[in-house]
């Protein structure tokens, strides 16, 4: 594949990934089935594009960060859709590829760790989610510093999990830390 086309595809995949991650307000049911069919077709098209990107990345001889991105994006698509088993599988596959291609302390690794933690949190498997969130936070702290605004989502996720396992004092300390971080 030509590098120009590859960059354009990467932009498209990023756009699709971000669209999948947006919180959407459910629309009221339509009086006809046409709008529902259109939404289902959009979801199917999105899945096809992401799976094709994954196939292309897997076809390369040496796994690289493009493969990790593709695995993460497909995992995120399934997580947002509620297919937690499929999402978990893709996130687990992405982690060693991230580690090999960009290093275990790269913030992109933290992204997949946080998403995998969300899968466990959705299943109420909080003790499995906690170490993943802790590791993601450590990676982001090392990359950005301990008081960077990019830590806020990780701190919020961590505090929320701590509350769910009845570690409220720790959660309050994390909340206080988060509150001290200057806004961007």
Briefly summarize what is shown.
The chain is mainly alpha-helical and 184 residues long.
Tally of DSSP helical segments:
8
Q: Give the rounded overall mean pLDDT.
A: 80
Helix vs. strand class? mainly alpha
Helix content: over 70%
Give a count of the beta strands, DSSP E runs of length 2 or more: 0
Q: Could you describe the largest sheet, including whether it forms a barrel?
A: none
Distance between the termini: 38 Å
Q: What string, H for helix and E for strand, traces the elements in order?
A: HHHHHHHH
Low-confidence stretches: 1-38
Shape: globular
- What is Rg? 18 Å
Proportion of strand residues = under 5%
Description:
- The chain is mainly alpha-helical and 184 residues long.
- It is 77% helix and 0% strand.
- It has helices at 3-21, 34-59, 65-81, 84-101, 107-122, 126-144, 152-164, 168-180.
- It starts with a helix and ends with a helix.
């Amino acid at each position: 594949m030509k590098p120009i086309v590859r960059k354009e595809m990467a932009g498209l995949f990023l756009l699709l990934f971000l669209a999948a991650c947006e919180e959407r307000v459910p629309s009221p049911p339509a009086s006809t089935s046409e709008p529902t069919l259109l939404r289902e077709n959009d979801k199917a098209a999105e899945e096809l594009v992401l799976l094709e990107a994954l196939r292309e990345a897997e076809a390369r001889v040496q796994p690289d960060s493009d493969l990790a991105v593709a695995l993460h994006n497909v995992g995120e698509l399934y997580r947002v859709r509620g297919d937690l088993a499929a999402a978990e599988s893709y996130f687990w596959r992405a982690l060693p590829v991230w580690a090999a291609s960009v290093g275990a302390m790269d913030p992109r690794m933290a992204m997949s760790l946080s998403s995998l933690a969300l899968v466990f949190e959705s299943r109420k498997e909080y003790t499995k989610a906690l170490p993943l969130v802790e590791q993601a936070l450590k990676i982001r702290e090392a990359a950005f510093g301990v008081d960077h605004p990019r830590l806020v989502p990780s701190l919020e996720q961590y505090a929320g999990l701590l509350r769910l396992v009845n570690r409220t004092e720790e959660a309050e300390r994390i909340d206080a830390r988060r509150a001290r971080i200057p806004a961007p």
